[in-house]
Amino acid sequence: RESKGMGVYVKDLQEIVVEDSEKLQKLIDQGFDHRATAATQMNATSSRSHCLFIIKMHQKDETNASNCNFAKINLVDLAGSERASRTGAQGDTLKEGANINKSLSSLGNVINALSKAASSGSKKVFI
User: Fold this and answer.
1) Tell me: the pLDDT tens digits for 75-93?
2) Predicted local distance difference test score (pLDDT) of residue 117
3) Which of 43, 52, 65, 75 has minimal CB crowding within 10 Å?
4) 37 forms bridges with which residues in the sheet?
5) Is 110 left (phi over 0), alpha (psi -120 to 50) or beta?
6) Rounded Cα distance, 1 and 19, in Å
7) Pairing between β-strand 46-47 and β-strand 51-60 as defined by DSSP bridges
């Protein structure tokens, strides 16, 4: 989504603080449970949605408060691209597949534009 005040944002996005790996795993499992899937001739549980987890880690040194480490991990699982003729999909599932392929193609265009900008040193590439 995009709005004038907020810019680009993800509707219903949540940032949740966890203290241990079990809680993190539970949240990842919960996220995967909410993904949209549909059966096709190529895959009984074909993912019809993309999934993104951003894990920010903060390590504190109990003996020296000024010694802290931060890390960020992006886990991305994209819906798979499938050829419509091989899936046997019809109706809404066929439309979803077309939209998935379109979004993956757009993502490829963004990555190509960013890599061209990075290699040429130009910051004026329209994406």
Assistant:
1) 888 887 777 777 777 788 7
2) 72
3) 65
4) 47
5) alpha
6) 31
7) unpaired
